[in-house]
Amino acid sequence: MGKKVLMKGNEVIAEAAIRAGCTHYFGYPITPQSDIAHYMAKQLPLVGGTFVQAESEVAAINMLYGASGAGARCMTSSSSPGISLKQEGISYMACAELPAVIVNIVRCGPGLGGILPAQGDYFQAVKGGGHGDYKMVVLAPANLQELYELTVEAFNIADKYRTLVMIMGDGNLGQMMEPVQFKDQEDIYKDEKAWATVGTGMKRKHNTITSIYIEPEVLEAHNNKLQKKYALIAEKEVRVEEFNTENADIIVTAYGTVARIVKNVIKLAKKDNINVGLIRPITLWPFPSEAYVKCAEYAKAFLSVELSAGQMVEDVRLAVNGKKPVYFHGRTGGMIPTEKEIYDKIKEILEKLGG
């Protein structure tokens, strides 16, 4: 490992992408992720890559389609409303089985909302914000070291499964600065991409990259193929952190920077002899349901804390499956929950359950 470097989160993403072999970046500026484009514009051409500031988010996602279809390791990034504009292209790419990395540094909404941090794009990311039956892997880092490592991993997962991978962090993660230790050499998944439209001089059958299937039987067969792949990803690629969950009275679930606050709450609770645990999904999809099934055997209740009006809590409820009560605490509009208000919520729940 090299020396630690103090960097901003957005710049860590861009540096990690370059280290992961990203050769093409297409984007359009929107706060709070514009630093990614700034970094890529400066650094990507220095390593022989291509940076394009597209005329719109719609243009950027379709450029990503073209570059990925030609076999390039490529990425785009945006924040909430910009990701909404990319949804049609995301669905097209999922159907065409094109690997790429999409970054969403989430701001608050709905609509234009504001530039402060939020987690209100959870449904959009994990439930398929575009049309049709598709999934994409969604990675949720909680610190900048993890942001670096998961960005590299995102490119590996994308190529391994020919799928889209989203890095989703709130505005805090993109704008904060922390020391990051980069590896001297990255472990890169190698794929010949024989399916890509690279030109062959008529030496083999033409490759076709498409998302249109007119015949229903053919489209259903393709959908079944996609669902089989998603099931394999769900089996192989779940990532989760369990912190102090053993014999916890109440399990809090949170992701991203909110999970960092919850860890401090757990320390507060210990002083009062209240045993609180944390389940932190690192893959928002595939969701780490098994962790909840296990903890439901002994925990009295679950609490989902989010920078939203309540989205991930639905997946927590599905995982717990009625075995124990599931509660929610959220803030919106760019407001961040304090340690005190989360701890007060925990005590209120335990009091309601009889201690």
In short:
It is built from 13 helices and 15 strands.
Task: Describe the 3D structure.
- Strands 2, 3, 4, 5, 6, 7, 8 and 13 form an 8-stranded mixed β-sheet that branches.
- Helix 7 (144-161) links the parallel strand 7 and strand 8.
- Helix 3 (57-69) runs parallel beside helix 5 and helix 10 (257-271) packs across helix 13.
- The chain has 2 domains: 4-236, Thiamin diphosphate (ThDP)-binding fold, Pyr/PP domains (Rossmann fold, 3-Layer(aba) Sandwich); 241-352, Rossmann fold (3-Layer(aba) Sandwich), CATH 3.40.50.
- The chain is built from 13 helices and 15 strands.
- The radius of gyration is 21 Å and the shape is globular.
- The model has no long low-confidence stretch (mean pLDDT 96).
- It has helices at 9-19, 34-43, 57-69, 80-85, 87-95, 122-126, 144-161, 171-175, 216-236, 257-271, 289-295, 312-320, 339-352, and strands spanning 4-8, 24-27, 50-53, 74-78, 100-108, 114-117, 137-139, 164-170, 177-181, 240-243, 250-253, 276-281, 283-285, 301-306, 326-330.
- By secondary structure, the protein is α/β, with parallel strands linked by helices.
- The N and C termini lie far apart (47 Å).
- The protein is 40% helix and 21% strand.
